[in-house]
Design brief:
Elements lengths: L1 H21 L12 E3 L4 E3 L3 H19 L1 H39 L18 H12 L2 H16 L12 H15 L1 H20 L11 H4 L6 H40 L9 H20 L1 H27 L2 H17 L1 H6 L13 H28 L5 H31 L1 H4 L2 H8 L2 H14 L4 H31 L8 H60 L2 H11 L4 E5 L5 E6 L7
Helix pairs in contact: 2-9, 2-20, 3-7, 3-14, 3-15, 3-20, 4-14, 4-15, 5-6, 5-9, 5-15, 5-18, 6-12, 6-15, 7-14, 7-15, 7-20, 9-10, 9-14, 9-18, 9-19, 9-20, 10-11, 10-19, 10-20, 11-19, 12-15, 14-19, 14-20, 15-17, 17-18, 18-19, 19-20
């Protein structure tokens, strides 16, 4: 067909522009120094893969040698030290990330298109939004959506100065929870996703973190500086992922025990680390089968099931729960969050902490979350990067910041609001608060979701559904995390052998089990904020390198050489050239009327 020939000609001309004017002058390609092992079943970067594997083995060996009691003490001490010493740094760094990415959106750089002026969107706006919603959900929201508001209701954050157990405490609880799951974490994910997408799609560099530092390092990204950056990225991804997996399996253990035992009386399962390690082994085996089935046969199918389960559980609780109370909680909590956002973002509580470095809520919750989100950002950021080609920087930032934040607000309002509704029964001493005060916090942390669901109709069924949802989140997170680590340890290649993905899925399960055995939930949190600390430094430098990349792109878009090329393209009736804000070209596409084709 004539249309195919025109599309091909336009594509070749546009690709030529992107390569000739925008791509760096380098003859390197993703994975060009890789080694193939075991008959081609492993395609590995000769430094990053063995280096990461060696350090992981050392970590596991040292944890096992220390023994459970001493390892727990080490993890607890590490967590406390980082919270008290570097908490201020985490708060300032995340604010820098948010300011930076908002600046990219509202400045002249917002008109730059990811993938170049000729790039077409690979997904419709609806599909893109749906995937962003999916990325915004995870094991963490399942784990903390009930526990966190209840904790704040009982011990309100110092910032709000509310009295425990009152309506003001409920408002403070929702606002603080929205703060931890709202714009700030998505600024981290958005910045990482934008950097990866820009340097991969606009510069033709490997889809790894070393590529983001091309403006500073040039070809040295393929040397030791790049190796170190990717090694830190591997560890940030691994321990951020294992934190999610460890929290998830703890909640699965509680779901089986509470729903199957206390509610249905058909199973007597203890809640302890040994059971959780066994559950990790079983669920990791399912994840391995999913990876072995391939993206379409396993991962995609499970992700679809996961999405349906999520929406069913959310819709069910919204209908059978206190619907009007949830809606009111959402509005009131969102107003308090937005009204206090700036001050809350910089609040450490140091002046009122009685000599402590940080307020208790900031040290125990905010610092952990910020470290976890930073460590988790390679995983989420790479996912966002891969689905966002063809969108302008402004469209990308607005979508990534606003859409997932709104979805998190709806989810947290439904589950947290339903919990607060029962907590407010009997003047703040309802079923949820009675359970909270009668058991250890670590126990309530994993049981809170199921205790809340029991207060509403068909609690056993919704509890089973919640348990299945956490399992599918575990499997899909493990599968997707394996793909990300594969990219990083194979020099940025996309077509990694199946055996290699199976290897990393298994490794993730082993590390999660060791962290749980060695330090419990505190061990998981210590791992997240420890690996998040050096990676936060990398992200701060990345703010500057992404700025350099975008500024260079805009300079070329304004150059005489680019204008001449565009003028030649404009002479063709079959090509449409889009400009935004004057002479800057933002799109080159097929301009023919195809309505009758």
């Amino acid at each position: 067909m004539a249309s195919d020939e025109s599309d091909q000609a336009t594509g070749e001309m546009s690709d030529g522009l992107q390569v000739e004017l925008f791509h760096p002058d380098s003859d390197r390609s993703p994975g060009d120094t890789n080694k193939q092992l075991l008959g081609g079943n492993f395609d590995i970067h000769p430094v990053v893969f063995p280096g990461a594997l060696l350090l992981i083995v050392l970590f596991i060996a040292i944890t096992l040698i220390l023994g459970q009691e001493q390892a727990t003490a080490v993890f607890d001490g590490t967590k406390t030290f980082i919270e008290s010493t570097f908490g201020w740094f985490y708060l300032l760094a995340v604010n820098v990330f948010l300011i930076t990415i908002v600046y990219f959106a509202i400045s002249k750089y917002g008109s730059i298109r990811i993938g170049g002026v000729e790039a077409e969107k690979e997904f419709s706006t609806f599909s893109w939004m749906a995937m962003l919603f999916s990325a915004g959900m995870g094991i963490g929201l399942m784990f903390f959506s009930v526990t966190e508001p209840v904790v704040y209701f009982n011990s309100p954050p110092a910032f709000f100065g509310a009295e425990a157990g009152t309506a003001a405490a409920g408002t403070a609880a929702m606002a603080q929870t929205f703060f931890h799951w709202g714009l700030s974490p998505w600024a981290i994910y958005g910045l990482v996703g934008l950097g990866l997408a820009f340097f991969s799609f606009n510069r033709g560099l490997p889809l790894t973190f070393r590529s983001i530092f091309w403006p500073l390092l040039g070809d040295r990204i393929y040397g030791w500086p790049g190796h170190i950056i990717d090694l830190v990225s591997v560890f940030a991804t691994l321990f951020g992922l294992c934190t999610s997996l460890g929290l998830g399996v703890a909640q699965v253990n509680s779901g089986f025990s509470y729903v199957g035992g206390d509610m249905l009386g058909i199973i007597d399962l203890s809640i302890n680390t040994s059971v959780q390690v066994v559950l990790i082994a079983g669920i990791t085996f399912i994840a391995v089968l999913s990876v072995a089935a391939g993206l379409d046969g396993g991962v995609k199918r499970l992700s679809t099931v996961n999405l349906y389960l999520m929406l069913i559980l959310l819709g069910f609780l919204f209908i059978v729960g206190p619907t009007l109370f949830v809606l009111g909680t959402m509005a009131e909590g969102l107003g308090a969050y937005l009204g206090n956002f700036l001050a809350l973002s910089f609040f450490t509580g140091t002046l009122g902490a009685g000599g402590a470095a940080l307020d208790g809520t900031v040290s125990a919750w905010t610092v952990f979350y910020w470290g976890w989100w930073i460590a988790w950002s390679p995983f989420v950021g790479m996912f966002i990067a891969r689905i966002s080609k063809g969108r302008t920087v402004r469209e990308f930032v607005l979508g990534v910041l606003v859409l997932p934040t709104l979805f998190s607000v709806v989810w947290l309002s439904t589950f947290g609001g339903s919990a607060l509704a029962t907590a407010l029964q009997g003047s703040g001493s309802g079923p949820i608060m009675s359970a909270y005060s009668s058991m250890e916090y670590s126990t309530f942390e994993t049981l809170g979701m199921f205790i809340m669901l029991e207060q509403y109709p068909l609690g056993a069924i919704s509890g089973i559904l919640a348990t299945l949802l956490v399992i599918t989140f575990f499997v899909t997170s493990s599968d997707s995390g394996s793909l990300v680590i594969d990219h990083l340890t194979s020099g940025g290649k996309h077509d990694v052998p199946r055996a290699q993905r199976v290897f990393w899925a298994t490794t993730e399960g082993i590390v999660a089990a060791v962290l749980l055995w060695g330090g419990g939930l505190n061990g998981l949190q210590a791992a997240a904020i420890s690996t998040g600390l050096p990676f936060a430094v990398i992200l701060l430098v990345m703010c500057y390198t992404v700025y350099l990349g975008l500024d260079n792109e805009y300079t070329i878009l304004e150059s005489e050489a680019f204008r001449e090329q565009i003028d030649q393209i404009s002479d063709s009736d079959d090509v449409a050239v889009d400009r935004t804000g004057g002479d800057v070209v933002t799109g080159v596409a097929d301009g023919r009327d195809t309505s009758n084709d």
